[in-house]
Design goal:
Layout (H helix, E strand, L loop, with lengths): L2 E5 L3 H12 L4 E5 L2 H10 L4 E4 L8 H11 L4 E6 L7 H7 L3 E4 L6 H12 L4 H10 L7
Helix pairs in contact: 1-5, 2-3
Length: 140
């Protein structure tokens, strides 16, 4: 079963996302601040992190840097109400795999679809394309 860590200080928002993921057979844990989220990530085995940027204890960009130091490959989707356009370059350089707005413009279905797309295993066609573009990689 896939596991997602939701690092989000707004409990109601986090619970809604968790319930939507449960309907897709995805297990989710919630951390209500950045420091707790980073510790949970280090102690857990997560396939994806859903990360708010503005949180108590430790801001999202610092959490992202900690996650990337610990695991450079896990998918991280930023989910925030703030307008982060100025920060997108910085966050992209640190390593985000997606961005979804929350708040009045939020679309829970869009978020869940993005998460499910990241969790989906690579299909044969995509694997072949990857192997063709990457000399030195061989199919085992």
């Amino acid at each position: 079963m896939d596991r997602v860590l939701i690092i989000e200080d707004e409990r109601i928002t986090a619970e809604k996302v968790k319930e939507a993921l449960k309907l897709k057979n995805v297990e989710a844990d919630i951390a209500d601040n950045g420091a707790v989220g980073l510790e949970m990530f280090k102690d857990g085995d997560y396939d994806l992190v859903l990360l708010d940027l503005t949180m108590p204890e430790l801001n999202g960009d610092k959490v992202l840097m900690g996650i990337r130091q610990f695991d450079p490959f896990v998918d991280v989707i930023v989910y925030t109400a703030g307008h982060i356009y100025d920060e997108l370059k910085k966050l992209t350089n640190i390593g985000i795999d997606g961005y979804v707005n929350k708040g009045s413009e939020a679309n829970l279905s869009e978020l869940v679809n993005m998460i499910m797309g990241k969790l989906a295993p690579i299909n044969e066609d995509d694997l072949e394309k990857l192997l063709q573009r990457s000399p030195g990689l061989v199919r085992s």
